[in-house]
Design brief:
The protein is of the alpha/beta class. The protein folds into two domains: 2-74, DNA polymerase, domain 1; 81-361, TIM Barrel (Alpha-Beta Barrel), CATH 3.20.20. Helix content is 37%, strand content 18%. It contains 13 helices and twelve strands. The protein has helices spanning 2-11, 25-34, 41-51, 65-74, 146-161, 182-193, 213-222, 237-243, 246-249, 252-266, 284-294, 319-331, 352-357, and strands at 81-87, 93-98, 104-112, 115-119, 123-125, 140-143, 167-172, 205-209, 227-231, 270-276, 299-305, 336-338. The strands form two sheets. It has a ten-stranded mixed sheet with strand order 1-2-3-4-7-8-9-10-11-12, covered by helices on one side. Strands 5-6 form a two-stranded antiparallel sheet. Helix 5 runs parallel beside helix 6 (182-193) and helix 11 runs parallel beside helix 12. It is elongated and about 70 Å long. The model has no long low-confidence stretch (mean pLDDT 90).
């Protein structure tokens, strides 16, 4: 109980300094000019942060001592404490990171034939309340600052540096609803996409949302070439409302209108994430209904055999039923794949490691 009390007290502390990782290049240039320095120093600082990946301002040796002291005085060089690091037999790595205030978040490194993908978290907890997800246990604690999201990618990249590898893609599908922390998410995207930042191409970045409709319209107007995914999980209003309470506020027909706006505005294909839950949404008739729902949308369907979460009641769809669902969609002309299972021998489900290790956070 004493440890729980300490953690709660620490969680109530507020950060004294903003993270330097939260600054885009133009923000840092403006700050330097305002403090009597040269704009070009911003590129040098970004090089130290994202290429050399230093963890101390004093290591930025081509900056004057005065500037280094100013940076230390004004900004935090966000570092995440690794509480747990799990490695699966397939190479998947899951990290539980502790933040400055004692809260914890999850980040996952997934290895594919096409490269290393990092799944990042945008919030401590989640308020969306999807009934199949461990991330929402205990509700939303707070939003992450952009720099705390950036730091996850940097931290994983430093782990890959030891193996001579690099992060090649990023998915925003970890704990939290990205569009519920929209502004910080956008700052994160622009930083990791920047040539001077982590230089991850827009088409190697994917953002997923449960369906906050006003933000979908806003995101479409950003005109970014970033991949966009919708957590759909149901072919009709009734089932979606059962699985995802957000559907009661943003109903499926309205969501489909917003999706159509996005595809028309950007010309880009959208991905539908469809988790298969035994006896709930995984029958052939559900596949037929899904095909009718999305028939006019430029899209791809990613079928996800659900990971079992002890705190939830859903069961995995039998293997043959998964293939029957896929075949039905293909017969209807739907572009569909089954997500390859990764990390099955570790706490793979989103939010599961955090729930296991820090129960007081997820009550």
């Amino acid at each position: 109980m004493e440890e729980v009390a300490k953690r709660k007290a620490k969680a109530e502390e507020k950060p004294q300094k903003p993270s330097i990782y939260s600054l885009e290049m133009h923000d840092l240039e403006n700050w330097l000019v305002e403090h009597g320095d040269k704009k070009f120093r911003a590129k040098q600082i970004f090089d130290w942060l994202y290429v050399k990946r230093v963890t101390d301002f004093d290591d930025m040796s081509n900056l004057s001592k005065g500037l280094r002291e100013q940076l230390k005085d004004k900004f935090a060089l966000t570092t995440l404490k690794t509480v747990v690091q799990q490695t699966s037999g397939d190479g998947t790595m899951k990290f539980l990171f502790e933040l400055h205030d004692g809260y914890t978040i999850e980040t996952v490194l997934m290895r594919h034939e096409y490269g290393n993908s990092v799944c990042v978290t945008t919030q401590v907890g989640c308020r969306i309340g999807c009934t199949f997800c461990a991330s929402t246990l205990g509700g939303l604690k707070r939003n992450l600052e952009a720099g705390e999201i950036v730091a996850q990618v940097v931290k994983v990249q430093k782990a890959l540096d030891e193996q001579g590898e690099r992060v090649s893609s990023v998915v925003i599908m970890g704990i939290g609803e990205p569009f519920d922390n929209y502004d910080e998410m956008m700052r994160f995207l622009k930083t990791i996409n920047s040539d001077d930042g982590l230089n991850i191409g827009a088409r190697h970045i994917t953002v997923s949302t449960s369906g906050i409709i006003p933000k979908i319209y806003k995101f479409a107007d950003e005109k970014m070439q970033i991949n966009f995914a919708i957590s759909l999980h149901a072919p009709n209003n009734d089932i979606r409302s059962r699985l995802m309470p957000i559907n009661r506020a943003y109903k499926l027909p309205d969501l489909m209108e917003a999706i159509k706006y996005y595809t028309d505005k950007t010309g880009r294909r959208i991905s539908f994430e469809y988790g298969l839950f035994g006896g709930v949404n995984d029958q052939v008739e559900h596949a037929e209904e899904l095909a009718d729902l999305i028939k006019d949308v430029k899209c791809h369907v990613n079928l996800i055999p659900v990971n079992y979460v002890p705190e939830r009641d859903y069961v995995r769809t039998p293997r043959e039923q998964i293939f029957a669902f896929e075949r039905t969609l293909k017969k209807r002309g739907v572009n569909v794949t089954i997500r390859r299972e990764q990390g099955h021998d570790i706490d793979a489900a989103c939010g599961q490691l955090r729930a296991k290790e820090r129960k007081e956070e997820t009550r």
